[in-house]
Amino acid sequence: MQASPPTAALTQRLERLGRGAVHFIEAIGNGGILVAESFYWVVFGHRDRQPVRMTAVIEQAMETGIRAIPIIAMLAGTIGIMLAIQGIHTLRIFGAESRVTIGIAFSVVREFAPLITGILVAGRSGSALAARIGTMKINQEIDALKVMGINPTRFLVVPSLISMLVMVPALTLLSMFVGLLAAGLYVGVDLGISIAAYTHDVLDILSVDDLGHGLGKSVIFAVLIAVIGVVNGASVQGGAEGVGKATTRAVVQAISAIVLTDMLFAFVATR
Amino acid sequence: MSDRFDQQRDRPRPVTGPGRVIEVRDLVTHYGDRAILQGVSLEVLENEIMVIMGGSGSGKSTLLRHLMALEHKTSGTMEILGEDIDTLSRLDFQDLRKKLGVAFQGGALFSSMTVGENIMLPLYEHTDLDRLTMEIMARMKLEVVSLAGFEDLMPSELSGGMIKRAAFARAIVMDPKILFCDEPSAGLDTVVASALDDLILDMRDAMGMSIVVVTHELDSAFKIADRITILDRGKILMIGTPDEVRRSPVARVQNLLNREPEDEMVDPDEYLDRLTGAPTTIGTAQL
Fold first, then answer.
1. Taking the model in full, what pTM does it have?
2. How many C-beta atoms surround the C-beta of residue A109 within 10 A?
3. Whether the complex's predicted ipTM surpasses the cut of 0.90
């Protein structure tokens, strides 16, 4: 018996919803498997005669980290100055603009440095990872690796994951430094506070916990960017169009995951 | 029609060994609910070139992927080089794979590496050889496939025929016992395709390996094959020497050789499914 049109439309919507839910759970499961597999290869790679190659990690670290320094420094500096401008403008209402350092220090170290770095690396390296793996999949390069007896996770994913785990926190540190420095220079010009006094204030305000808060988040962001990039790349079907879609999806999902995780992390860490 | 294929093999066929390098029994495989291979059994002998033929959607590429241990089967047994692949440990399976070489249809060269680095990759990953020795070995293999001097080029700088040759060089760099070739002559002009056929014969004669070739190019198949397996809708229609295939009284075999359409009515949906390959399934996002 055929369903009536409204029932059929509802069934279709429910089916789509169900499929979406299954794909979402599947993607999370695949991500978890990738992380577990990567950990396995880091620990047991030598025993299984498939060590993770340092050269591959360094190559990836160059691409993910070193080549991203100029753009990250520029954006971190801009954000630092923007925070200083807004902070001074807002605090001037209460005549408390000299206290702007507190807001800048906390905002840059706990929020903006990890967030901006994560978003930039997701847009730059996460998309590249998805595109690379997607292209390799449709060109049968991943099959070629398997037939050669080379585990694709060990060969492709682990170097990217390790390089992200090292470089995203490192870039976050750089971002913190540049953001604080740029804000300090602006504060110096606008409020006449010397850079030495500003630095003293910043060091006085910030604790190791604040630094750990920012860097802890950046480690989670690194895992999210790598896993989302790989899962989307590995799900490519079709040709170049499929790679394009997977790349876009990887960036959107990674940035969404970063912002959501950032909020959850901030909520949990401030309880 | 038969005259067309009679003159193509102009070199003596070497004696194939008594041993079986591949033994498949009752292989059944599904994509979702759809049966792709339905009880396929075949053997590949030592030093033999086995060509697998069939129309579009016959399951020949899926069979090749199974022979390369890239797919999970529903049922059946498969032994490669005397090893039951279901009972092998991961490390033994990894060692077994080092004895297999594959030249994929599109070459599957790594686009971020030079031709030389592509060929050296299996050596780099599986041996302790120093770089100089690996470079010498890569150059030797490039000479075998007539690509000497191209090791520093990127794959994007090669023509289609050269990419396939480079893929052959990479496939044989570990001196495999079995070489798999997926549509080696597809997309090439007849001269280049014929030269690749000669290369396959030369490699077998020089290196004494068994070669499994999937192709739909009849000229190529009859030129290189010691035996031909004809697949039809996931089942083996016949296995025989090129002469036996030529003389086969089976109408569907003759249809395939004469490039005539199938004589039976087929379900259009099922036919479309077979042509388009695997339907969208859950679980595709793994490497």
1. 0.82
2. 27
3. no
